[in-house]
Amino acid sequence: MPKTLAVASLKGGVGKTTTCTNLAAYVAAMGIPTLLVDLDVQGGVRFGVGLDDYAGATLEDVLLRGRPPAEALIMTNRAELSVVLSGRFATDQSLEAYERAFEQDVTWLARLLPHFATADFTPQLILLDTPAGLGAIATSAMVAADGLILPVQCEPLSLRTLPPMLRRVLEVKSKYNPELNIEGVLLTMCAERQPAAADVARQVREAFPGGLVFDTVIPRHEELSISFAVGTPAVTLKTRAAGAQAYIQLGREVIMRLPEE
């Protein structure tokens, strides 16, 4: 059985998609079959892995038009990395229908994920990129996941989003998914020389017991933004840059926690 991790946050702009694309690219490069599923209607994964010209089937087609899941599975040119994109959402009606479908059944995604395995591709790790907030799509990801990666930007406002997120985790555990756990809190966009950033990092590490905060801290670094412009994750674009090195270290932490195959 693959391990499924959802990357989720109440706040937008904390690095969810950057984390998903770089983590997926690194783990796959280490020879571990990895599936990256973009649930966010903004579709950032499309640009992060260089699929902006892709015109095939998406999760929108599976959910709303009955297309077989295998048709939405994109085998990328990166070894062991496959992707499912959220959709194109050409009209407001299609966007509303997509979101409404998750609202009607938050267990749908959990039932769907096993069907992305094929004779040619069986993932060992599934990463779910979620929209900001605690809506039905993010909740569906929690229902489907084994663990959560919770990015916290190193600034006070982001820190304040943790308590309501933790309350939602407990709610999902009690109602739908008793096996859901926190894989780790991830400190992102950290300018370590700024006192406020250092204070947030300190508070997070003091608030959570050992092992629930990743050792890796993601710095605020330019190449992480540039990588989206060129459609290549930083871990394969500029491997020696600070941001890429941080995600490589995070990838090693995640791999160490994968079940042995």
Task: Describe the protein in words.
This protein is α/β, with parallel strands linked by helices and 261 residues long. It has a single domain, classed as P-loop containing nucleotide triphosphate hydrolases (Rossmann fold), CATH 3.40.50.300. Helices cover 43% and strands 17% of the residues. The protein has an 8-stranded mixed beta sheet, sandwiched between helices. Strand 7, helix 9 and strand 8 form a beta-alpha-beta unit. Helix 1 crosses helix 12. The protein is globular and about 50 Å long. The mean pLDDT is 93.
Alpha carbon gap, first and last residue: 9 Å
CATH superfamily membership: P-loop containing nucleotide triphosphate hydrolases
> What is the chain-wise order of helices and strands?
EHEHHEEHHEHEHHEHEHHH
Provide the residue-averaged pLDDT: 93
Strand percentage: 15-25%
Structural class by secondary-structure content: alpha/beta
Q: What name does CATH use for the topology?
A: Rossmann fold
* Principal-axes shape call: globular
- How many β-strand runs? 8
Share of helix, binned: 40-55%
Number of distinct helices: 12
Q: What is this structure's SSE topology?
A:
Elements: E1 3-7, H1 16-29, E2 34-38, H2 44-48, H3 59-65, E3 74-75, E4 81-84, H4 92-104, H5 108-112, E5 125-129, H6 136-144, E6 147-153, H7 156-159, H8 162-175, E7 181-190, H9 195-207, E8 213-219, H10 222-230, H11 234-237, H12 242-256
Parallel strand pairs: 1-5, 1-6, 2-4, 2-5, 6-7, 7-8
Antiparallel strand pairs: 3-4
Helix pairs in contact: 1-12
